[in-house]
Specification:
globular, alpha/beta, Beta Polymerase, domain 2, 147 residues
Length: 147
């Protein structure tokens, strides 16, 4: 079982990228402009080596989408959780992390398909579960079948 780093521990590791004061017992919130650099740092840092992306998920809070990254360091037997808020219902976007972890490919496409959050720089940003031409994103809280 991996040891989950606290938000404070993650924030301390990322202190060179900025001052991230928003954290709790298990996660840290980053501005979306820092999410790629933070992921890149945690993957490549010799004292972190979070080389495995366990999951990316999204939550619709209506005012914003929260995107959650679950990372694992197999070498140090640690895990950490990064979160970011993505505002804008019609133009929600984040940078893709597929260049860091190939496993992000299908997960980012699923979030695009079901929630409508686009990942800039993704090599194949198209629907994965629903057909092309489907109107809307069905896991959004404001989705209706007539959309």
């Amino acid at each position: 079982m991996t040891k989950n780093l606290t938000g404070k521990e993650i924030s301390t590791k990322l202190s060179g990228l900025g001052d991230f004061n928003e954290f709790d017992d298990v996660s840290v919130w980053l501005p979306k402009k820092h999410i790629f650099k933070a992921c890149e740092f945690l993957k490549n840092d010799d004292e972190s080596k979070f080389i495995f992306l366990r999951a990316i998920s999204a939550v619709d809070y209506v005012e914003y989408f929260e995107i959650v990254y679950h990372l694992v360091s197999l070498e140090f037997n640690n895990s950490c959780i990064l979160k970011t808020k993505c505002y804008g219902r019609e133009d929600a976007f984040l940078p893709s992390v597929t260049s860091l972890w190939n496993g992000a490919d299908l997960q980012e496409r699923e979030i695009w398909d079901l929630m409508g959050v686009r990942f800039e720089g993704h090599p194949n940003m198209k629907r994965i579960l629903l057909w092309e031409g489907f109107e809307g994103h069905p896991l959004r809280k404001d989705f209706t079948e007539s959309t």
